[in-house]
Amino acid sequence: xxxxxxxxxxxxxxxxxxxxxxxxxxxxxxxxxxxxxxxxxxxxxxxxxxxxxxxxxxxxxxxxxxxxxxxxxxxxxxxxxxxxxxxxxxxxxxxxxxxxxxxxxxxxxxxxxxxxxxxxxxxxxxxxxxxxxxxxxxxxxxxxxxxxxxxxxxxxxxxxxxxxxxxxxxxxxxxxxxxxxxxxxxxxxxxxxxxxxxxxxxxxxxxxxxxxxxxxxxxxxxxxxxxxxxxxxxxxxxxxxxxxxxxxxxxxxxxxxxxxxxxxxxxxxxxxxxxxxxxxxxxxxxxxxxxxxxxxxxxxxxxxxxxxxxxxxxxxxxxxxxxxxxxxxxxxxxxxxxxxx
Length: 341
Prior knowledge:
The protein has helices at residues 21-34, 70-83, 100-103, 121-129, 140-143, 186-196, 211-218, 235-243, 260-268, 280-283, 296-303, 311-321, 324-340; strands at residues 2-6, 38-42, 52-54, 90-93, 110-113, 135-137, 151-154, 173-179, 200-205, 227-229, 245-250, 272-275, 290-293. The chain is an alpha/beta fold. The two termini are 15 Å apart. The mean pLDDT is 95. This is Glycosyltransferase family 4 protein.
């Protein structure tokens, strides 16, 4: 099968540091190639792939010193795609709804994985106009906000089976990985660290839009708890960071569509303590691979019970449900359904 994967241009594929969507696109692209398919990746020029790379810009947008207009380069990417679209059997978009007016007028088969939140009111209006665009959710929770649109499947993210080593022994610190932003709940993680007296290591990026929140709200909390702020980390650092942790705190207070770090953590054997929001109940098996909680007090209580979790069960759960191979097979099934009915 000849497949085009169309990635956002904000991060390299895979990202050098933070970035879930582009990391998943990389795993999917390389797994499809490994399974014998011909894949062309539309992404930034610094991306890494064994397939063909078509790039509208040399370097991913976010880490460039001189800021550029993202819309310009995404439009150029779509133009490059449509110039050669007849080369492909199917187009797999990961750029949200940007391509909808173009794809709506094109006979080439396509699908769009929606990686973001769908609880925004304007999206209902958008999908009233594009209600026949085939879309894929990354959790069942994510699709619940727009249950009537043209869902053609739900595909959980997956990681390569050998990417994360298994760490059989519990570490001594709590881990937080993600973004510093109100919806990610890092303030909750800090409060849990304060109440338990456990060290909390925060590996997170701070976007420009969240710098004031970080400075005014989060930084003062560091003085009240045993916190170490590490900043953004890449894949190699993340493996050890997660593997040597006592538990991953995932204290989200928004409808998290997936949360890749949860399966990354469990792949290392490290259990997850996550808030009952979004996809968390679909990813974490309560009492077996971690705990699903509703409050800070419950989080403190469950941390004291974390030794009841068998770290082997955490890794087994990922190998059974969240591998790149399973993800690719699920997408291939959807591709075939769209192409051949």
